[in-house]
Amino acid sequence: MAPLRASISIQGDSMRISFSKRAVAFAVSALLSTLAFAHNPADYPLRVHIFEHNSHSHYYHRVLDWVDGEGRANLFENGMPLGFDYSYRCSERLRNSAGFETYLAKWKKRNETLEILLPKLGNASATVSCDLKVDMKDFAYFRQGNGLQTESPAAYKEWMEKHQYDPEHGKNDPVGLAPEPAGAATGPTQ
After folding, report:
1. Is the domain of 189 the same as that of 126?
2. pLDDT for res 190
3. What ranges in 37-184 are assigned the alpha helix state H?
4. By the 8 A CB rule, do 159 and 188 touch?
């Protein structure tokens, strides 16, 4: 019986070695695939400010599978703001832009589909992409009180220049804004 134990022990060691080689190969493969699909911010030159959206969460075995909905936003491209309505289906929940923050974006199919990067909750350095099916408008949105208003892109651009707001070039906080009374316009005004 002792020789049998020795052969089982040896066989067990070889199985452990084989298993650990597989585990290392899997880990390296997972790491490389993560790096291959990492999003390079330089590939996302546009900015999107999400004003509002609605959503419906879909679950599979009590785990979030995907979220869909629709909303309104502004696109900043080549220094010009332009409003759009959109629908989406994403693996993560979409969130409205806080203050004047924007999401990185790029055209997947010009005037039809924008791809934006959403920060992954719980991991500040990770992002996931989300496609927005867009209906471009000939105006820009801005918030006034609890509602959205519209104005020409030229008027919004004038406000951007006056307040040095240019999210495409890292100027994410307007300067020289006076505190607004409750219910007053919190963005461009006509």
Report:
1. yes
2. 41
3. 153-162
4. yes
